[in-house]
């Protein structure tokens, strides 16, 4: 952060005249429209499916339980390539439709994916799991009393959803949508490819074409300010909403069994986003991988790339989880402005494009490395080289900073849904902080923590710009290897690496969703 | 239940594992930072290692490598930096992370136009920014860059973002030749001729022409060759178009240059120079031409037959430094005329 601000403090030359007059109006408009569109779409899909999944039982739910979060494993830019390919006038959709339906010129009316609505569609359908995971974590531990009380008062299922569950899930939904918004803000590959000139795209061109790193950093700070504003607005909006429920035990509500048409509808509602956000891109990639003989000529180096991806991601996830627990727990035990500030700062990394973080990190990380060399020389040892960068720790640090908002946000939302009364009851019986932590918080936070781990891990697997810039010599990850093909205009040749990212994500996602599903409560 | 101690232990184990990933800087090695994708240059590096016994270690990225070298300072492991465009060559020199390549071989083999007078960089290969014209709908055989603004092309041109480095360099060349005011007028004209908002990449320009969205697409020479020769699925896109080498009115086709630079603090300087000299050797230049479909900088090396089929390339004689000096102006004009909006 500091080094980004210090980059921003350098004179930026005369770029701001242009930025204000020609760049920012369009960039702010495009960014705002994209954010609103993607936010609305993911909220609709994420909250809707989370509600169906956490409150109902229907055939296929078990399978959906681990399918629902999987679109997370598809990097946005890959989804953009795939859908643009599919919907181009020469693409599969047009060709298929032309064979089966005599539409003729009407085919021209098919949506052009390389447009703002196209970008909203593509980005929304791979990012909805952020909202889904956050919402489900809350919906399923929401106290049943409220719903039961509402039922007693004659409220129907929809009324309960709109008037009780949804408002109570608001902190979690806000976290989910905030993550979606930040991820969208951060996206560069998909936006640029689909022709949307967002703030992030402008940051890159300011740096690369105008040669103004300072100007780019200043734009990044502007973006940070906007994000801070959004977060503040959201906080202000729910300043009076006390979220934690009563001291009653939050016994879990039983899931309503569905059958017949209702079961089919529930299944369709949930399976559709998975199909669009995951199955279609995955099938397309698999088709490309097979068609190009990538399996028969399997490149054994891919295993190495997978190992690197996995190691970087796992280490960063662990570090972030520990940091997130430390900050949120500190805030819980003694909420004061300072701790609140620390927690808020921990969340800002997500608002900065990965490359900006990487550039910002270069100076401090390498200063440490260079200092270690000086010390080594001073004590008469030969220089150890660049330890942090050379070992890949710089990548791990970048991931941790970049994605820390995920565990902090989700665990904070988890804490918000644990009644303060619990703390007082525990203190009354003389429980110390350690006991409260082990016996109350951690068990109740489990869904939130697991959700955070999935999201963070998969985010790390997909991360590209910081990985590219900070990785050591001779180290490739799966995403940098896809990039090698994509930047050549042949992303399909990276299909196998993309499939491996998905495969690497499926394991943890499946395992963790299994553990995060709270069993249906007693009748 | 997640146990904090287990977490801490796993973190420790993982960080140990990672530390084995680290690089070495022993004798007989050379470290390359590259903007060129490793997949493309690896065959060249392999051949170099076979010839010389020197191991090549690589980091590739899409941007920021000169910033990394700057921050690494005297401890930087980088010996050689490979770039794929004029802009990045210029950035690296401006960042002060290079030193002159003192090599008689390079001076002899690389034409003066394609290397820095002070020896800060040397070109290795070239690609031209050309027109993919519809075979059915475009009858002209010659088109000038100036003509792209002619209203006769209204609604007929497809191009990627005006801020992409390839277009940036072309527009910078235009501004260097005609001055900013004329360049602005021209860009407004081109913008008015676009069939759709700038998006996609160079291969999409060919696809859009094939699909009838536009009559001419702007792209680099090698994308077309790659579609034609290396990708059966995309071959129809190339087949629907033919490549026209446009020129400026005074003559000369815009080319961009991939270049090589020697790092200021190169720990394996001698090996670095060996690699640079090898990259401009006949063998390497031939590999560049045949595998990457680029124009070699070394005279007397045969260009690939697909590329040769475009016609005889007469590269724009405008010095590379002039183009680099106009990059910012070009970026500014693109925004001013709202090219991408």
TrEMBL record, chain B:
The identity of this protein, by name, is Iron(III) transport system substrate-binding protein
Stored PANTHER family: IRON-UTILIZATION PERIPLASMIC PROTEIN, THIAMINE-BINDING PERIPLASMIC PROTEIN-RELATED
Keywords of this entry: Iron, Metal-binding, Signal
Q: Which family does the record assign?
A: Belongs to the bacterial solute-binding protein 1 family.
User: What molecular function does GO assign, one term?
Assistant: metal ion binding
InterPro entries xrefs = Ferric-bd
Q: Does the keyword Signal apply?
A: yes
One Pfam family, short name: SBP_bac_6
Q: Organism source for this protein?
A: Bradyrhizobium daqingense
Has the keyword Glycoprotein been applied to this entry? no
Q: Where is the signal peptide?
A: 1-24
Q: Which GO terms describe its cellular component?
A: outer membrane-bounded periplasmic space
Residues that coordinate or bind Fe cation: 222-223
In terms of superkingdom, the source organism counts as Bacteria
């Amino acid at each position: 952060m500091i080094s980004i601000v210090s980059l921003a403090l350098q004179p930026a030359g005369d770029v701001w005249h242009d930025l204000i007059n020609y760049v920012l109006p369009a960039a702010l408009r495009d960014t705002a429209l994209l954010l609103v569109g993607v936010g609305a779409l993911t909220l609709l899909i994420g909250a809707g499916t989370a509600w169906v999944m956490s409150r109902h039982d229907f055939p296929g739910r078990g399978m959906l339980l681990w399918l629902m979060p999987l679109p997370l494993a598809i990097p946005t830019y890959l989804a953009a390539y795939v859908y643009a390919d599919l919907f181009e006038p020469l693409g599969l959709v047009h060709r298929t439709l032309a064979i089966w339906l005599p539409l003729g010129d009407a085919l021209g009316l098919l949506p052009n994916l390389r447009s703002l609505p196209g970008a909203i569609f593509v980005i929304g359908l791979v990012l909805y799991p952020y909202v889904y995971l956050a919402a489900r974590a809350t919906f399923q531990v929401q106290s049943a009393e409220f719903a039961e009380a509402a039922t007693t008062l004659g409220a129907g299922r929809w009324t309960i959803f709109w008037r009780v569950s949804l408002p109570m899930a608001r902190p979690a939904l806000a976290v989910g949508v905030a993550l979606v918004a930040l991820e969208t803000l951060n996206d560069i590959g998909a936006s640029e490819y689909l022709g949307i000139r967002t703030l992030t795209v402008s940051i890159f061109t300011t740096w690369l074409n105008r040669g103004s790193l300072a100007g780019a950093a200043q734009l990044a700070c502007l973006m940070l300010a906007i994000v801070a504003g959004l977060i503040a607005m959201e906080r202000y909006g729910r300043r009076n909403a006390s979220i934690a429920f009563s001291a009653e035990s939050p016994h879990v509500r039983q899931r309503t069994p569905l059958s017949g048409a209702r079961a089919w509808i529930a299944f369709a509602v949930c399976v559709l986003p998975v199909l669009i956000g995951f199955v279609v891109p995955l099938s397309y990639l698999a088709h490309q991988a097979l068609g190009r003989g990538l399996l028969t000529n399997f490149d054994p180096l891919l295993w190495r790339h997978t190992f690197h991806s996995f190691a970087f991601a796992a280490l960063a996830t662990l570090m972030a989880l520990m940091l997130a627990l430390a900050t949120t727990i500190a805030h819980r035990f003694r909420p004061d402005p300072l701790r609140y500030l620390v927690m808020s700062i921990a969340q800002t990394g997500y608002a900065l494009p990965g490359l900006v973080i990487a550039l910002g990190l270069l100076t401090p990380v390498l200063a440490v490395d260079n200092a270690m060399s000086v010390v080594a020389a001073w004590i008469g040892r030969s220089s150890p080289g660049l330890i942090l960068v050379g070992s890949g720790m710089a990548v791990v640090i970048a991931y941790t900073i970049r994605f820390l908002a995920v565990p902090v946000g989700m665990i904070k939302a988890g804490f918000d849904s644990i009644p303060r009364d619990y703390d007082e009851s525990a203190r009354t019986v003389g429980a110390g902080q350690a006991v409260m932590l082990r016996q109350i918080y951690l068990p109740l936070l489990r869904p939130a923590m697991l959700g955070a781990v999935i999201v963070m891990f998969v985010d790390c697997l997909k991360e590209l710009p910081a990985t590219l810039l900070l990785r050591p010599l001779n180290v490739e990850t799966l995403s940098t290897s896809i990039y090698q093909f994509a930047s050549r205009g042949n992303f399909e040749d990276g299909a196998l690496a993309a499939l491996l990212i998905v495969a690497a994500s499926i394991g943890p996602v499946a395992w963790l969703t299994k553990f995060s599903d709270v069993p249906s409560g007693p009748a | 239940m997640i146990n904090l101690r287990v977490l801490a232990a796993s973190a420790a184990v993982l960080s140990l594992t990672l530390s084995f990933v680290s690089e070495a800087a022993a004798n007989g090695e050379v470290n390359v930072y590259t903007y060129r994708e490793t997949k493309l240059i690896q065959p060249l590096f392999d051949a170099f290692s076979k010839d010389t016994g020197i191991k090549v270690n690589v980091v590739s990225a899409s941007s920021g490598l000169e910033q990394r070298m700057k921050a690494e300072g005297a401890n930087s492991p980088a010996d050689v930096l490979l770039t794929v465009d004029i802009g990045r060559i210029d950035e690296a020199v401006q960042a002060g992370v290079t030193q002159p390549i003192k090599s008689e071989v390079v001076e002899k083999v690389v034409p003066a136009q394609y290397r820095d007078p002070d020896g800060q960089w040397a070109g290795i290969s070239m690609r031209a920014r050309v027109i993919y014209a519809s075979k059915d709908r475009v009858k002209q055989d010659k088109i000038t860059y100036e003509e792209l603004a002619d209203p006769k092309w209204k609604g007929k041109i497809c191009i990627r973002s005006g801020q992409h480095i390839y277009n940036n360099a072309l527009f910078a060349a235009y501004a260097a030749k005609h001055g900013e005011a004329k360049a602005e007028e021209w860009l407004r004209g081109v913008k008015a001729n676009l069939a759709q908002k700038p998006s996609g990449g160079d291969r999409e320009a060919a696809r859009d022409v094939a699909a009838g969205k536009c009559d001419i697409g702007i792209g680099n020479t090698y994308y077309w060759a790659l579609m034609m020769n290396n990708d059966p699925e995309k071959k129809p896109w190339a087949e629907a178009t033919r490549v026209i080498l446009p020129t400026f009115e005074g003559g000369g086709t815009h080319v961009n240059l991939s270049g090589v630079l020697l790092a200021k603090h190169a720990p394996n300087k001698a090996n670095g120079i060996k690699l640079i000299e090898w990259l401009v050797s006949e063998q390497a230049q031939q590999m560049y031409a045949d595998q990457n479909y680029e124009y070699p900088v070394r005279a007397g090396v045969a260009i690939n037959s697909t590329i040769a089929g475009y016609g005889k390339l007469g590269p724009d004689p405008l010095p590379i430094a002039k183009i680099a000096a106009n990059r910012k102006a070009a970026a500014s004009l693109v925004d001013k005329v709202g090219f991408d909006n």
